[in-house]
Amino acid sequence: MAPVPAVSPAPLDRVESDRLFVRTGGQVFCRICGSSRTTMVIRRLRDTRFSVLRCRVCATERLHPQPSRDEIRSLYSADYYQSWNMRDGEKPVVAEMKKDTFRRHLRLLAGLVSPAKILDVGTATGFFLEVARDAGFDPYGVELSAYSGAIAAQKFAAGRIHIGTLETAPFPAGMFSAVAMSDLLEHVPDPLETLARARRLLSPRGVLMITTPDCQSFSRKIMGRRWTHYKVEHLFYPNRSSIELMADKCGFRVLHAERARKAMSLAYLHSQFQTYRHWALTPLAALASTVAQGWAHRHFTIPMGELLVFLGKAA
Q: Does 151 reside within a domain?
């Protein structure tokens, strides 16, 4: 495997056009595995100007070109939460469904680290932190969206929720026994830098918990270019191998990894497929939600093409 070429670090308060692949001597190299071989898997993503490229060695995929910082920020308005049925604030049925998922993840996390201060990066409206608080953790959060961050801030004491990014968060090194990134890593311009920053915030025996799409999952293979995780706000698409490579580069070791399962309901699936439309699954979800109205909000757990990974600091 070719070594990753040396590159001068970019300023951390600035988003470059593409941080996952670097150009050196006329060639473009994958920062994760060092390969210069890439291929295009989607020429135009959902009728946008973006395509999806894949590294032919580690199979990491990324959106190309990468959106600007202003484009990224504009995505996370109230409209972004339409697929959650939460454009006009939180809905109890959605809140409880998401909390069911987080309770399972926190039970696994509590088996790896004693409850203490926990940071949720990409906390949205704070569902994960509510469950973490109930489990004995001391909650803090970071959220880019002013809309959802304001909702989260109302739930916790002053100074607990930072509206911004991990790069601008004021928390000191070693403050947290756990850092959670639930459906976050795929949203950041430079996942390696995000992992490195999370490591600095962890105590020596701290644990980083990640859920993120797996571009080699069964659902990706079945849905192809209509995979629900293919969307403009997802800047890159890892897999089990690339997560392990990134962990190693950033000073982590894998403590546990598994296929993530999420609590779901027919009503929620219906709303998701109305926003992220698929020629077969959108009408199927609509039919199921209508036919089984009495069961539309019942929870069941299914794999959604994601990984759940727990990382500890390497010695």
A: yes
Q: Is residue 59 part of a domain?
A: no
10-residue stretch averages of pLDDT, the chain, 315 residues long: 31 41 63 89 90 94 87 71 54 84 96 97 95 97 92 94 95 98 94 96 98 96 90 93 96 97 81 71 76 74 94 93
Query: Domain count of the chain?
Result: 1
Domain of residue 98 covers 69-313
User: From CA 96, how far away is CA 205, in angstroms rounded?
Assistant: 31
Q: Indicate the burial class of 158 (C-beta count within 10 angstroms; 0-12, 13-18, 19 or more).
A: exposed
Q: What integer pLDDT is reported at residue 15 of this predicted model?
A: 31
- What CATH number has the domain bearing residue 215? 3.40.50.150
**Contact partners, residue 76, CB within 8 Å, separation at least 6:** 144, 145, 147, 148, 233
- Give yes or no for a contact between 122 and 97, defined as CB atoms under 8 angstroms apart: no
